[in-house]
Amino acid sequence: MVAMPNKKPKIMSSQSSGLKESLTPCPELEVEVWLNTPPLRLKDLRGQIVVLYFFQMLCPACVMGASILANKIHENLLPEVKLIGVHSVFEHHEAMQKKSLEAYLYEFRYRFPVGIDAPSEGGIPRTMSKLKLRGTPTFILVDREGYIRQEIFGLPDELILGYLLGKLAMNHVGVRP
Q1: What one-character-per-residue DSSP string does the chain give?
Q2: Which residues are CB-contacts of 140 (< 8 A; sequence separation ≥ 6)?
Q3: What is the pLDDT of residues 84-134, one digit of tens each?
Q4: What's the CA dihedral at 48, 68, 39, 93 to 10 degrees?
Q5: Which CATH number is 19-170 given?
C-alpha cells in the first residue's frame, strides 16, 4: 500500500476504518488512454455496479489487490458488475509508462479494462485528485445510479468486499438503503 505524502495508510480488515461510506455522485474518469477496452464513460454504465480499482503497478499491495480482483472477483462477477482499473501514478513516473503497464497486464493476464489516469502538473493524477484519494490501492464501489457507495483504502478483506458487492447487487435501481 502506498500513501501519498502526508497521508497515513490504513490496512483494511473486518474491523478497519479503511472503509468510508459515501453517497455522492461519482465524477467522470479523466483517462489519458484505455487498455483492454474501447474508451469507457461512467455515465454509459448506469444500471450496472462499477468497481473502480485505483492502483500503481509497482505498489506491492496493489499487485495483491489486482490479484484478488482478477482471479477471484472479475472471473465470477455478476453481469451487472463492471470492474475498471485506473492506473494512478503519483510516484516513479518514468518507470510506470504505458508500455510497462501493457506488459504488466499481459504477463498477469489481467483482461479487465484499465484506464491510465490523466497526469496533472502537480504530480497527482487528475481523477485521483478530483476524488481526493489517500493513495493506492483504493477500491471505489459505485451503485447503479452512479453514486459512490463505498471507498476502501488499502487491501480489503475478500469477504467484506464480496458482502459489499452483494449488498449493492441486491438493491434495485432507485433504492438506497
Answers
A1: -EEPTT-------TT-S-EEEEEEEPPPP-EEEEESSS---GGGGTTSEEEEEEE-TT-HHHHHHHHIIIIIIGGG--TTEEEEEEE---S-GGGS-HHHHHHHHHHTT--S-EEEEPP-TTSS-HHHHHTT--EESEEEEE-TTSEEEEEEESPPPHHHHHHHHHHHHHSPTT---
A2: 26, 51, 52, 54, 131, 148, 150, 151, 152
A3: 999 987 665 565 688 999 999 998 888 889 999 998 888 889 999 999 999
A4: 140
A5: 3.40.30.10
Domain boundaries in the chain?
Answer: 19-170
Which three three-digit cell numbers place residue 177? Answer: 438503503
- From CA 6, how far away is CA 9, in angstroms rounded? 10
- For the cut 70, the answer to whether the pLDDT of residue 65 exceeds it is yes
Cβ atoms within 10 Å of 19's Cβ, excluding its own: 19
**Residues forming a β-bridge with 147:** 25
- How far apart (Å, rounded) are the C-alpha atoms in residues 40 and 31? 9
pLDDT of residue 111: 86
Q: How far apart are CA 162 and CA 73, in angstroms?
A: 8
pLDDT: is 60 or 168 the higher one?
168
* Confidence check: pLDDT of 61 > 70: yes
Kindly report whether the global pTM for this prediction surpasses the value 0.85. Answer: no
